Amino acid sequence: KIFYKRDKITNKGFVVEHITDSIDLSAVDTWVTLEATKLGIPAPTVNATLESRFLSVMKDERVEASNVLKAPEGSDTPSVMRDQISDDTGNAIY
To answer: What does pTM read for this prediction?
Structure first.
């Protein structure tokens, strides 16, 4: 559903075309992981989130890599997963 929602603010294209795929890091992002490490507490979910944020900040590198690295020919996401991804994205946003 989100992929077909028109942008009512700019009246140009779809909402999904205006979503930025990069974020900024803050001190809090690393603080939680550092404190968990100091206390010897595993924090895999927090760590995975932080790693995702690091990759998000590296937008220029991701764009450059996408020009060099290509998906293997013939590979495709199964349609069952494509539908699931679409549903999950819609549910996460709304």
So the answer is: 0.45
